Beta-ureidopropionase
Amino acid sequence: MAEKDRAQNGSMDDKNEDPTNMAAASNGSICGFESLHHLLRSSLSPHLFQEVSRLLLGFNCGKPLDPITLPSPAISLSSSHNFDLQAYRFQAQKESIRDPRIVRVGLIQNSIALATTTPFADQKRAIFQKLKPIIEAAGSSGVNILCLQEAWTMPFAFCTREKHWCEFAEPVDGESTQFLQDLARTYNMVIVSPMLERDVAHGETIWNTAVIIGNQGNIIGKHRKNHIPRVGDFNESTYYMEGNTGHPVFETAFGKIAVNICYGRHHPLNWMAFGLNGAEIVFNPSATVGELSEPMWPIEVFSDRVLYISQARNAAIANSYFVGSLNRVGTETFPNPFTSGDGKPQHKDFGHFYGSSHFSAPDASCTPSLSRYRDGLMVADMDLNLCRQVKDKWGFRMTARYELYEDLLARYLKSDFQPQIISDPLLRKNAA
Ligand SMILES: NC(=O)NCCC(=O)O
């Protein structure tokens, strides 16, 4: 890997890779390494690392993903503002009729900027100031579509059940959208902004919403989180209800996109619905911590811990589209202790949000993940022709038998539902 690529896609001698760097190690690193891939690259011979990467990340068009060297301004910004910067290319087979449809897509993960005890206006402003150089790095790299993390403008305070955190909520066209509209116009970039929405026109209701800002700075639309967790410290149902916007796909200047917000990643029908509506890229802005989702993490989202079987990756395969998975980073300590009524002692934080944002492709390939504890920008060039090529190759849409599931779901929703169970007749005979 060329030196410039290493400076950008993570290097072994990065100060954050120092296994003795106990500060990093205590902040969600893996034995002082930023990610499993960094650990493996540092520990294995180049040939072994290549083989392990092939197994963990898959092949795209018969080979590992090529790293992309981003322009110097982006690399300089990543160094001066200490955020992880990685970039890779997903290719498709060359077609005889269609030209390639290359789109450059970015994901930003970040920790909060000020302590949760500081004034809310200061916290929000500090996050804007923290994100601006990372967004500028994306824009100066030619990113066409950029997605931020869930509820990016605030601490993920939905563990506290305290309602003053709702002061961070804004109308869809409020302060954070205006901040991003200027950047969208400046860089001709679509921006997905997952935020806490206050629906002023409808009783000032609160929603967990993703606002889609077009590359000319206009608001294209919004999507509200469909599935709300009631698990562990995720007391989000105290703040907002299940969304009422269905499964919209937003036709932007660069492709058709959708947003599956965090907990919705556990629901395969949620992923499927965006696919049936024609999504080519589905973003999964999340906020999740090791204590809760670690046991599921190797199954559900790209894991730096054990396996690279990812529900996001599965969704990309099953629905023949690209997925951008984001998770925030850091540990957010709140002023007042809280409990989730699960017998555990009261505490003041969720645990560590472990970042690890990454992209998955419909051909089962995926990028390595971003840092487990540093802010980061992941960039990928995607040839959207790959979506239809995989549909044609595997035929998942054609063989899906939706009518079977329509019938089952229609019966399941009725109060007299009878599960389709065929019992061993001998069970009853022996019991008699
Ligand atoms: N933000 C959110 O929905 N988190 C739920 C916990 C999880 O899905 O890991």
Summary: Confidence is low (pLDDT under 50) at residues 11-22, 294-309. The longest strand covers residues 190-199. The radius of gyration is 22 Å. The domain at 63-394 is CATH 3.60.110.10 (Nitrilase/N-carbamoyl-D-aminoacid amidohydrolase).
